[in-house]
Hints:
By secondary structure, this protein is an alpha+beta fold. It has two domains: 1-57; 59-250, Aminoglycoside 3'-phosphotransferase, Chain: A, domain 2. Helices cover 44% and strands 16% of the residues. The chain has eight helices and nine strands. The chain has a four-stranded antiparallel beta sheet with strand order 1-2-4-3, covered by helices on one side. Strands 5-6-9 form a three-stranded antiparallel beta sheet. The N and C termini lie far apart (36 Å).
Amino acid sequence: MSDRFTVRELGGDPPLVEKRGDPAALDREAGALRLLDGWPRAPRPVRHAPGVLVSTRLPGAPRPLAGAGAADLGRLGALLAELHGMRAAREGGLPWWPRPARSAAEYRAMRADDAERALGGTAWEGLGRRVAAGPAAGDGEGDHARPFRMLHGDLVAANVVWGPDGPGLVDWEFWRMGDPAEELAYLAEINGLDDADLAAVLAGYGDPAMGRRVSAWRALAAADAGAWYLAAGVPDEAARLLNRAATLLAAPG
């Protein structure tokens, strides 16, 4: 969670959490929780007002995802498959885009544009254009008329809460309708998952075509995340991710 928010435990039965901060971000998060209301892997919204969101508290705590073990990473993959299967749409994108994307290819190009805007005028200028020109795996094997699915949008380890019944997801301000392969690629790159870790996630996800699609997204996911950290003033993490994107682009195949 960024420093744009303050969080306070309210207790009660069930325990509640009050989150205060950026009203637009909390509006987006409240919208996601309303869509997910009743899904046990996300908090349940209780009260929302400008700049304030009260929701139920998921039991458990975050922990590092790299090296978490095949069983738990498989559970996380299964959770993400469940999430991505809940809603489908003909259009997708982020709230600041001037219009939604109408195809998976257009969505990918607009994500690359996001990265390039943040990298312009820096030592990394041009990386967004290079990743956009890299290999793309298309829409996958699913519903081509509705290629977009509901994504959490920010699967850093701090947003994955491990409780007695397995993982749950918190902090939904970046949710969107997007490409599930992007979400899985971001999960791998932002958390530094190795090949065995990612294989465990994909095994739990259960889609045989997804590995190829995730591979096609990994450089762009790393570049976009690195661009975000650069703009946020976190240069070490930005450099790690941007160097990773460049390495993935240079890799054969």
